[in-house]
Amino acid sequence: MPKFSDSERQEIQNKLLEEGQRLFLAHGLKKVTIDDITQAAHIEKASFYKFYEGKEYLYLDIVQNIQAYIFEQLEKLLCENKELSNKERVKQVFAKMSEYMLQYPIIALIDSSTVELISRKVSKEHLAAFYEQTVDAVEVMQRHGITFTCENEIVSYILEALYRAWINMQHQKPEVIEVATQILLDGMIHQIVLE
After folding, report:
1. Which of the four pLDDT bands, split at 50, 70 and 90, describes residue 153?
2. Is residue 88 within 8 Å of 195, Cβ to Cβ?
3. CA 71 to chain centre
4. Are 31 and 20 in contact (CB under 8 A)?
5. What is the mean pLDDT of the chain?
6. Which has more pLDDT, 130 or 23?
7. How many other C-beta atoms can be found within 10 angstroms of the C-beta atom of residue 29?
8. Distance between terminal CA atoms of the chain?
9. What is the distance between the alpha carbons of residues 158 and 187, in angstroms, rounded to a whole number?
10. What is the DSSP code string of 16-75?
């Protein structure tokens, strides 16, 4: 098995993350093979397994790295806008998350079939860590004093449903997207955000 220096290891890791994201975005998790990834990253297949047990683990790593960055940015946004009402802050979080969905479309592509494929291939521990991280946006808001009328899991599901609706509207005219999103967001905030 190949041995890598720390710098080589970091370079390969970065290349796997970069090429994996590009390939998964272009072709989807199901169609991308480890051979595709290793060819794009210019490494041997045996080297891939020094980093990941399978392509699903790479996919989760990509998604979790992006999510961690997004949550870090949400922390900053919430810290900078403490003087606003809870409802306004939730609107800002949604707007920022929407920007990130466009910036990192791989996040928007996660659907039930992708999760099902991943859940069959990765360890329960990795899957649990992934699910735990998806609730983090709600927990980030709570740490900053935003309170909700229902449990975190429900709030997270409602936000996810709103994002899915927003994603599905992307083929509409911008003014339609803006008005429809505002109506959905205002209704959701009215129901679940406490002042």
Report:
1. confident
2. no
3. 9
4. no
5. 90
6. 23
7. 23
8. 58
9. 11
10. HHHHHHHHHHHH-TTT--HHHHHHHHT--HHHHHHH-SSHHHHHHHHHHHHHHHHHHHHH
DSSP of 72-126:
HHHHHHHHHTTTS-HHHHHHHHHHHHHHHHHH-HHHHT--HHHHHHHHHHS-HHH
Q: Is the pLDDT at 41 greater than 80, yes or no?
A: yes
Mean pLDDT of 33-62: 96
Cα distances from 166 to residues 108, 161, 171, in angstroms, run 10, 9, 10
Q: What is the pLDDT of residues 173-191, one digit of tens each?
A: 999 999 999 999 999 999 9
pTM listed for this prediction: 0.81
Contacts for 78-87: CB closer than 8 Å, 24+ residues apart: 78/140, 78/141, 78/144, 78/146, 79/144, 82/144, 82/145, 85/195, 86/145, 86/146, 86/147, 86/193, 86/194, 86/195, 87/189, 87/190, 87/193, 87/195
User: Looking up tokens 């809870």, which residue turns up?
Assistant: 86
Find out whether 190 and 85 touch, Cβ atoms under 8 Å.
no
Residue type, position 137, single letter: A
Tokens (6 digits) for 57:
């683990």
DSSP designation for 147:
E
